[in-house]
Protein backbone atom coordinates (compact mmCIF):
# COMPACT_ATOMS: atom_id res chain seq x y z
CA UNK A 1 0.00 0.00 0.00
CA UNK A 2 2.74 2.44 -1.00
CA UNK A 3 2.46 5.53 -3.15
CA UNK A 4 2.62 3.69 -6.45
CA UNK A 5 0.03 0.93 -6.56
CA UNK A 6 1.43 -2.33 -7.88
CA UNK A 7 -0.59 -4.05 -10.57
CA UNK A 8 -0.62 -7.81 -10.00
CA UNK A 9 -2.31 -10.54 -11.98
CA UNK A 10 -4.37 -12.79 -9.73
CA UNK A 11 -4.35 -16.38 -10.96
CA UNK A 12 -7.41 -18.57 -10.25
CA UNK A 13 -6.43 -22.13 -9.31
CA UNK A 14 -9.53 -24.30 -9.01
CA UNK A 15 -9.65 -26.79 -6.15
CA UNK A 16 -9.85 -30.33 -7.57
CA UNK A 17 -9.47 -32.27 -4.31
CA UNK A 18 -9.16 -30.80 -0.82
CA UNK A 19 -6.48 -32.04 1.58
CA UNK A 20 -7.54 -34.55 4.26
CA UNK A 21 -7.55 -31.87 7.06
CA UNK A 22 -9.89 -29.60 5.06
CA UNK A 23 -12.18 -32.56 4.25
CA UNK A 24 -12.39 -33.26 7.98
CA UNK A 25 -13.56 -29.68 8.63
CA UNK A 26 -16.78 -30.40 6.72
CA UNK A 27 -16.98 -26.97 5.09
CA UNK A 28 -18.87 -28.25 2.02
CA UNK A 29 -22.27 -27.07 3.28
CA UNK A 30 -20.92 -23.53 3.90
CA UNK A 31 -19.68 -23.38 0.32
CA UNK A 32 -23.17 -24.11 -1.07
CA UNK A 33 -21.96 -25.82 -4.24
CA UNK A 34 -19.62 -23.01 -5.29
CA UNK A 35 -16.50 -23.70 -7.35
CA UNK A 36 -13.54 -22.78 -5.13
CA UNK A 37 -10.28 -21.25 -6.35
CA UNK A 38 -7.03 -20.50 -4.58
CA UNK A 39 -6.02 -17.04 -5.81
CA UNK A 40 -2.31 -16.31 -6.29
CA UNK A 41 -0.92 -12.81 -6.99
CA UNK A 42 1.89 -12.74 -9.55
CA UNK A 43 4.04 -10.21 -11.39
CA UNK A 44 5.06 -12.82 -13.99
CA UNK A 45 1.91 -14.09 -15.75
CA UNK A 46 3.99 -15.17 -18.78
CA UNK A 47 5.64 -17.87 -16.66
CA UNK A 48 2.40 -19.65 -15.64
CA UNK A 49 3.11 -22.48 -18.11
CA UNK A 50 5.83 -23.59 -15.68
CA UNK A 51 3.80 -23.99 -12.49
CA UNK A 52 4.89 -27.05 -10.51
CA UNK A 53 2.90 -26.47 -7.29
CA UNK A 54 1.40 -23.66 -5.25
CA UNK A 55 2.47 -22.22 -1.88
CA UNK A 56 0.62 -21.03 1.22
CA UNK A 57 2.05 -19.79 4.51
CA UNK A 58 1.48 -22.67 6.97
CA UNK A 59 0.69 -20.35 9.89
CA UNK A 60 -1.37 -17.82 7.91
CA UNK A 61 -5.17 -17.74 8.29
CA UNK A 62 -7.10 -17.83 5.04
CA UNK A 63 -10.75 -17.25 4.33
CA UNK A 64 -13.01 -18.75 1.69
CA UNK A 65 -14.86 -15.72 0.29
CA UNK A 66 -18.00 -15.71 -1.87
CA UNK A 67 -17.33 -14.06 -5.24
CA UNK A 68 -20.96 -14.41 -6.36
CA UNK A 69 -23.44 -17.29 -6.00
CA UNK A 70 -21.31 -19.80 -7.95
CA UNK A 71 -17.67 -19.08 -7.09
CA UNK A 72 -15.49 -18.58 -3.99
CA UNK A 73 -11.86 -17.49 -3.51
CA UNK A 74 -9.32 -18.68 -0.94
CA UNK A 75 -7.05 -15.78 0.12
CA UNK A 76 -6.27 -13.60 3.14
CA UNK A 77 -9.03 -11.42 4.60
CA UNK A 78 -6.87 -8.38 3.85
CA UNK A 79 -6.75 -9.17 0.13
CA UNK A 80 -10.46 -10.06 0.03
CA UNK A 81 -11.25 -6.60 1.39
CA UNK A 82 -9.04 -5.04 -1.32
CA UNK A 83 -10.82 -7.16 -3.95
CA UNK A 84 -14.18 -5.96 -2.64
CA UNK A 85 -13.02 -2.33 -3.07
CA UNK A 86 -11.87 -3.21 -6.59
CA UNK A 87 -15.27 -4.52 -7.64
CA UNK A 88 -14.38 -8.22 -7.77
CA UNK A 89 -17.35 -9.43 -5.68
CA UNK A 90 -21.14 -9.41 -6.15
CA UNK A 91 -22.96 -7.88 -4.28
CA UNK A 92 -20.53 -4.98 -4.88
CA UNK A 93 -18.28 -4.01 -1.98
CA UNK A 94 -19.33 -6.87 0.30
CA UNK A 95 -16.89 -9.30 1.92
CA UNK A 96 -18.77 -12.54 2.60
CA UNK A 97 -16.54 -15.09 4.37
CA UNK A 98 -17.93 -18.62 4.08
CA UNK A 99 -15.19 -20.50 5.99
CA UNK A 100 -11.78 -20.08 7.60
CA UNK A 101 -8.79 -22.34 6.92
CA UNK A 102 -5.20 -22.37 8.14
CA UNK A 103 -2.44 -22.63 5.57
CA UNK A 104 -1.28 -25.80 7.28
CA UNK A 105 -4.70 -27.37 6.62
CA UNK A 106 -4.70 -26.37 2.93
CA UNK A 107 -1.31 -28.08 2.27
CA UNK A 108 -1.88 -31.25 0.22
CA UNK A 109 -4.88 -29.84 -1.67
CA UNK A 110 -4.85 -30.62 -5.39
CA UNK A 111 -5.57 -27.67 -7.69
CA UNK A 112 -5.69 -26.83 -11.39
CA UNK A 113 -2.66 -24.83 -12.54
CA UNK A 114 -4.18 -22.27 -14.90
CA UNK A 115 -2.31 -22.42 -18.28
CA UNK A 116 0.15 -24.89 -16.72
CA UNK A 117 1.89 -27.52 -18.86
CA UNK A 118 1.31 -29.80 -15.85
CA UNK A 119 -2.44 -29.33 -15.46
CA UNK A 120 -2.89 -30.31 -11.81
CA UNK A 121 -0.50 -29.57 -8.94
CA UNK A 122 -0.43 -29.64 -5.12
CA UNK A 123 -0.34 -26.96 -2.43
CA UNK A 124 2.87 -26.91 -0.36
CA UNK A 125 4.04 -24.85 2.65
CA UNK A 126 6.34 -21.81 2.22
CA UNK A 127 7.47 -20.21 5.46
CA UNK A 128 8.52 -16.93 3.81
CA UNK A 129 5.05 -16.07 2.45
CA UNK A 130 4.08 -12.62 3.75
CA UNK A 131 0.58 -12.13 5.11
CA UNK A 132 0.83 -8.47 4.13
CA UNK A 133 1.48 -8.90 0.41
CA UNK A 134 -0.79 -10.02 -2.42
CA UNK A 135 -3.29 -12.73 -1.51
CA UNK A 136 -0.98 -14.81 0.74
CA UNK A 137 -1.05 -17.51 -1.95
CA UNK A 138 1.97 -17.83 -4.28
CA UNK A 139 1.95 -19.99 -7.35
CA UNK A 140 5.27 -21.72 -7.79
CA UNK A 141 7.40 -21.42 -10.92
CA UNK A 142 10.82 -22.74 -9.86
CA UNK A 143 12.29 -22.33 -13.37
CA UNK A 144 12.13 -18.55 -13.05
CA UNK A 145 11.57 -17.70 -9.37
CA UNK A 146 14.60 -18.21 -7.09
CA UNK A 147 12.33 -18.12 -4.00
CA UNK A 148 10.14 -20.87 -5.41
CA UNK A 149 13.14 -22.99 -6.40
CA UNK A 150 14.77 -22.55 -2.97
CA UNK A 151 11.61 -23.62 -1.12
CA UNK A 152 10.90 -26.55 -3.43
CA UNK A 153 14.50 -27.75 -3.00
CA UNK A 154 14.22 -27.48 0.81
CA UNK A 155 10.86 -29.31 0.91
CA UNK A 156 12.25 -32.15 -1.21
CA UNK A 157 15.24 -32.53 1.12
CA UNK A 158 13.10 -32.66 4.27
CA UNK A 159 9.64 -33.87 3.24
CA UNK A 160 8.96 -35.64 6.55
CA UNK A 161 10.02 -32.59 8.61
CA UNK A 162 7.63 -30.38 6.62
CA UNK A 163 4.87 -33.03 6.85
CA UNK A 164 4.40 -33.33 3.12
CA UNK A 165 4.03 -36.35 0.87
CA UNK A 166 7.07 -36.51 -1.49
CA UNK A 167 4.72 -36.90 -4.47
CA UNK A 168 3.24 -33.44 -3.78
CA UNK A 169 6.67 -31.94 -4.58
CA UNK A 170 7.53 -34.30 -7.43
CA UNK A 171 7.24 -31.97 -10.44
CA UNK A 172 10.65 -30.72 -11.61
CA UNK A 173 11.22 -27.14 -12.87
CA UNK A 174 9.79 -26.76 -16.38
CA UNK A 175 11.62 -24.62 -18.99
CA UNK A 176 9.38 -21.65 -19.93
CA UNK A 177 11.76 -19.06 -21.35
CA UNK A 178 15.44 -18.84 -22.20
CA UNK A 179 17.91 -16.10 -21.39
CA UNK A 180 21.31 -15.73 -23.09
CA UNK A 181 23.23 -15.81 -19.81
CA UNK A 182 21.32 -18.42 -17.77
CA UNK A 183 19.71 -20.72 -20.33
CA UNK A 184 16.33 -22.43 -19.90
CA UNK A 185 16.26 -22.64 -16.11
CA UNK A 186 17.23 -19.17 -14.92
CA UNK A 187 16.33 -19.59 -11.23
CA UNK A 188 18.13 -22.92 -10.65
CA UNK A 189 21.21 -21.48 -12.45
CA UNK A 190 21.27 -18.42 -10.17
CA UNK A 191 20.56 -20.53 -7.07
CA UNK A 192 23.71 -22.45 -7.89
CA UNK A 193 25.98 -19.59 -8.96
CA UNK A 194 25.00 -17.38 -6.01
CA UNK A 195 25.30 -20.38 -3.66
CA UNK A 196 21.87 -19.98 -2.07
CA UNK A 197 21.84 -22.07 1.12
CA UNK A 198 18.15 -22.15 2.05
CA UNK A 199 14.81 -20.34 1.53
CA UNK A 200 15.84 -18.04 4.42
CA UNK A 201 19.07 -16.95 2.71
CA UNK A 202 17.40 -13.61 2.05
CA UNK A 203 20.47 -11.70 0.86
CA UNK A 204 21.46 -14.14 -1.88
CA UNK A 205 17.81 -14.67 -2.82
CA UNK A 206 17.14 -10.94 -3.17
CA UNK A 207 20.06 -10.68 -5.58
CA UNK A 208 18.98 -13.80 -7.50
CA UNK A 209 15.43 -12.45 -7.75
CA UNK A 210 16.61 -9.10 -9.07
CA UNK A 211 18.85 -10.68 -11.72
CA UNK A 212 16.23 -13.29 -12.74
CA UNK A 213 13.55 -10.64 -13.14
CA UNK A 214 15.71 -8.30 -15.25
CA UNK A 215 17.25 -11.10 -17.36
CA UNK A 216 13.84 -12.63 -18.04
CA UNK A 217 12.10 -9.38 -18.85
CA UNK A 218 14.77 -7.69 -20.99
CA UNK A 219 16.54 -10.66 -22.59
CA UNK A 220 14.11 -13.60 -22.34
CA UNK A 221 12.49 -15.48 -25.21
CA UNK A 222 9.42 -17.69 -24.74
CA UNK A 223 10.05 -21.43 -25.22
CA UNK A 224 6.45 -22.63 -24.82
CA UNK A 225 2.83 -21.59 -25.24
CA UNK A 226 0.96 -19.54 -27.81
CA UNK A 227 3.68 -16.86 -27.94
CA UNK A 228 6.64 -19.23 -28.27
CA UNK A 229 9.59 -17.51 -29.98
CA UNK A 230 8.45 -14.01 -28.94
CA UNK A 231 10.30 -11.86 -26.43
CA UNK A 232 9.11 -12.01 -22.83
CA UNK A 233 8.46 -8.27 -22.99
CA UNK A 234 6.01 -8.80 -25.89
CA UNK A 235 4.48 -12.03 -24.55
CA UNK A 236 3.84 -10.85 -20.99
CA UNK A 237 0.79 -8.62 -21.64
CA UNK A 238 -0.52 -11.09 -24.24
CA UNK A 239 -0.45 -14.10 -21.89
CA UNK A 240 -2.06 -11.97 -19.19
CA UNK A 241 -4.87 -10.89 -21.56
CA UNK A 242 -5.45 -14.53 -22.66
CA UNK A 243 -5.70 -15.69 -19.05
CA UNK A 244 -8.18 -12.92 -18.20
CA UNK A 245 -10.20 -13.69 -21.35
CA UNK A 246 -10.30 -17.38 -20.32
CA UNK A 247 -11.70 -16.42 -16.91
CA UNK A 248 -8.58 -17.77 -15.19
CA UNK A 249 -7.11 -14.45 -13.98
CA UNK A 250 -8.04 -10.89 -13.05
CA UNK A 251 -6.27 -7.61 -12.35
CA UNK A 252 -5.51 -6.78 -8.73
CA UNK A 253 -3.75 -3.72 -7.32
CA UNK A 254 -2.35 -2.86 -3.91
B1 LIG B 1 5.94 -14.02 -8.51
P1 LIG B 1 6.73 -8.06 -5.02
CL1 LIG B 1 8.26 -16.83 -12.00
N1 LIG B 1 4.74 -13.43 0.04
O1 LIG B 1 5.09 -14.91 -9.28
C1 LIG B 1 5.88 -13.71 -0.64
N2 LIG B 1 5.96 -13.68 -1.98
C2 LIG B 1 4.85 -13.35 -2.66
C3 LIG B 1 3.63 -13.05 -2.02
C4 LIG B 1 3.60 -13.12 -0.59
N3 LIG B 1 2.49 -12.85 0.10
N4 LIG B 1 2.70 -12.79 -2.95
C5 LIG B 1 3.30 -12.91 -4.14
N5 LIG B 1 4.60 -13.26 -3.99
C6 LIG B 1 5.63 -13.50 -5.01
C7 LIG B 1 5.87 -15.82 -10.12
C8 LIG B 1 7.23 -15.23 -10.09
C9 LIG B 1 7.31 -14.22 -9.15
C10 LIG B 1 8.34 -15.57 -10.85
C11 LIG B 1 9.52 -14.88 -10.68
C12 LIG B 1 9.61 -13.88 -9.73
C13 LIG B 1 8.49 -13.54 -8.95
C14 LIG B 1 5.79 -17.23 -9.57
N6 LIG B 1 6.01 -17.30 -8.18
O2 LIG B 1 8.53 -12.58 -8.00
O3 LIG B 1 7.41 -8.03 -3.72
C15 LIG B 1 5.05 -13.78 -6.38
O4 LIG B 1 5.97 -14.53 -7.14
C16 LIG B 1 9.73 -11.87 -7.79
C17 LIG B 1 9.50 -10.39 -7.95
O5 LIG B 1 5.35 -7.51 -5.01
C18 LIG B 1 4.99 -12.43 -7.07
O6 LIG B 1 5.36 -12.69 -8.44
O7 LIG B 1 7.61 -7.50 -6.10
C19 LIG B 1 6.02 -11.61 -6.35
O8 LIG B 1 6.39 -12.32 -5.16
C20 LIG B 1 5.55 -10.23 -5.96
O9 LIG B 1 6.63 -9.63 -5.31
TrEMBL record:
Superkingdom per UniProt? Eukaryota
As for family, the record states: Belongs to the class-I aminoacyl-tRNA synthetase family.
Q: What is this protein called?
A: leucine--tRNA ligase
User: Which organism does this sequence originate in?
Assistant: Pterulicium gracile
Stretch of the intact protein here: 274 to 527 of 1096
Amino acid sequence: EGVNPLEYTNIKMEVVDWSTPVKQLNIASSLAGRKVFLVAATLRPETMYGQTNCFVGPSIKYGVFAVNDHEAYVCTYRSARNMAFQGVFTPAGEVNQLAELSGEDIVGTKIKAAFGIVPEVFVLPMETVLETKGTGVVTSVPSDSPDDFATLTELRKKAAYYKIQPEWAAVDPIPVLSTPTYGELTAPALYKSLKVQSPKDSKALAEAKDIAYKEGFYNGTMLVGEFKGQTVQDAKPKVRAKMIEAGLAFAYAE
